[in-house]
Amino acid sequence: MDAVVIVAYFAVMLALGYVGMRRSRTSEDFTVAGRRLGPFMYTSAMSTVVLGGASTVGGVSLGYQYGVSGMALVLMLALGITAIGVVFGRKLFRSGVYTVPEALNRRFGARSRVISSAIVVFYTLMVGVSQIIAIGTVLKVAFGVPAGPAAVIGWAVIMVYSVAGGMWSITLTDIIQFLIKTVGIFLVMLPFAIQAAGGFAGMRAELPAGYFSPTGIGWSTILAYFLLFFFGFMIDQGNWQRLFTARSEAVARWGAVASGAYCALYGLAGALIGAAGRVLLPGLDNPDDAYAQVAALVLPVGVFGLIVSAALAASMSTASGLLIGSSTVLTNDVLRPRYGPRAASVRANRAALFGIGLVALVVSLLMDSVVGAVTVAADLLAAALFVPVVGALFWRRSTAAGALASIVAGSVVCVVFMAVSGLYANEPVGYGMLASLVAFVAVSLAGRPAPEAAVPFEELPDRSGQSGAPRASASA
Where are the transmembrane segments (predicted)? Predict the structure, then answer.
C-alpha cells in the first residue's frame, strides 16, 4: 500500500509536467511562469523551494541530535526568505532583474556578471545535489534499495517534469507538494511521533534538558547558520527567480513574508519530530535516517507512504527550483550576452536544465551529507556575493572595482579557512564576509564612481541597452 501511494505521487508529478509543458511557450513562461501567480500559488511555491531536504530530512536530523534548537537552520532560512520580500522585493520587482549576476551586471558591468555566474551556478547546483541525496535517503528506507539507485529514480522524475514545462510545471507540482508537506508534517508525522514518544512529558523524562533549550545547539552554530543561511538565502537564485513569478509587487513582497512564517513553524515541527525520534530510536548510526525510520516505526501502512511522499515533495520541489535557477543563470548570464536571445529560448533552457541536472546527479552520488552539501555551497555564496549584491542595490557610491575586489577577497578567504578549519567549520563564512566587506568599501571609496552611480538601481538600464523594465521573452 505504501509503495502504491508513492508511485501514485510520482505519476501525479509527471502528469503535471505535461500540463506545464502546454503552458510553457516562451522563455518567460519557462523561467518565471509568465509572472502570473496569485497569493496562494506564489506563497506555496516560495515555501516549497525553501523547504527542501536540508529543511525536512536535515531538520529532523538536527532535532534528533540537538532537540528544539535543531530548528535553527530552518529558522534562518525563514528569516532570509522574509527579508527577500521586505528588503529586496520592491527594487528587484521594479527592475526586472531576476538573476543575481544580472543585478551585479547592471551596476558593475560584465566582469562581475561572469565571476558571480560561476559562484551562483556552483551554489544552486550544490543545493540541488543535497536534495537528490535526501531523496535517495528517503527511498532507501521506504523500498529497501541502495541510496544510489533510489536517488536516480527520484532524479529521473524531477528531470522529466522540469525539463518538460520549466517553472510552470515546477509551480504546479509545488502546489501539490506544499499540500502534501503541510498535511504530512503538521497533521500526521508530528502528532504521531510525539504520542509514540510518550508526549512532551515522556520526552522531557527521557531526553537531556538541553533538548528543550532554544540555544542547545550552541551559539557558535546558531551564528554560523545566521551567516550562512540568512544572508545566503537573501541572494539565493532560486528565491529571486520565484519572486518574479508573482503577478504583482504586493504579492511578491507579502507572499515572501507569509512564506517565512510558514517555514519557521515547519522548522519547529521538524525539530520536535527529531527529538521524539531520539526517544524512540536512540541508537541510529546516521541521524539523516531519523525522518524515514521514525515514520516507519510510528505510522500505519498507507499513512507511511504519505509521509515518505512528503519528504520526497520537500526535496523534489527544492531540487527542481534550484536546478532551474542554475540553468537560468547559465542561459541568461553566460550564453545570452554572447549569442543573443536565442541562447535563452525555451529549447536552450531545456537543454541547459537537463545538463545541469545530469551534473547534479553525478555529484550527489559522490557525497553523503545533506546538510554538509548545502553548507559548503552557502559558505561561498554568502562570503563572495552578499556584500556586492547589497551594494549594487542600495549603495550608489559603490564601484565596479570595489565589487570585483569584494568577490575575490570573500572567495579567497572563505576557501582558505575551509582548508584550514575544515569544510564544515563555522569560521569560513564569517571571515569571508568580513574580508568581502572591507575590500568592497575600501576599494570603492578609493576609486571614482561611474556616472550611473547617481541612478537608483531600479532605473538602471541593462548593459545591452534595454531599459530596466522586464525584457521581452524569447520564444522557442
Answer: 6-21, 42-64, 70-93, 114-139, 151-171, 178-197, 217-235, 256-277, 297-330, 351-367, 373-395, 402-423, 429-447
The crossing angle, in degrees rounded to 10, of helices 72-83 and 53-66 is 140
Q: Which helix (H) or strand (E) holds 284?
A: none
Integer CA distances (angstroms), 21 to 100, 159, 161, 164, 167, in order:
26, 13, 8, 5, 9
Q: Is 253 exposed, middle or buried (0-12, 13-18, 19+ CB in 10 A)?
A: buried
pTM of structure: 0.85
- Assign 34 to helix, strand or coil: helix
384: in domain:
no
CA atoms within a 13 Å half-sphere pointing along the CA-CB vector of 408: 10
Q: What is the CATH number of the domain that holds 338?
A: 1.20.1730.10
Q: Say how many C-beta atoms besides its own lie within 10 A of residue 279's C-beta.
A: 21
Measured in whole angstroms, how far is the alpha carbon of residue 302 from the centre of its chain?
Answer: 30
In a domain, 330, yes or no: yes
Per-residue pLDDT reduced to its tens digit, 223-254: 888 887 888 888 988 889 999 899 999 999 99
Whether the Cβ atoms of residue 37 and residue 242 lie closer than 8 Å to each other: no
Q: Which helix (H) or strand (E) holds 163?
A: helix 147-181
> Is 58 domain-assigned?
yes
Cα(362)–Cα(96) distance, rounded to whole angstroms?
A: 34
157 by DSSP, 3-state: which? helix
Locate 292 and state its grid cell.
524515514
DSSP SS3 for 475: strand
The x, y and z cell numbers of residue 175, run together, are 502546489
The sign of the CA dihedral 67, 68, 69, 74 is positive
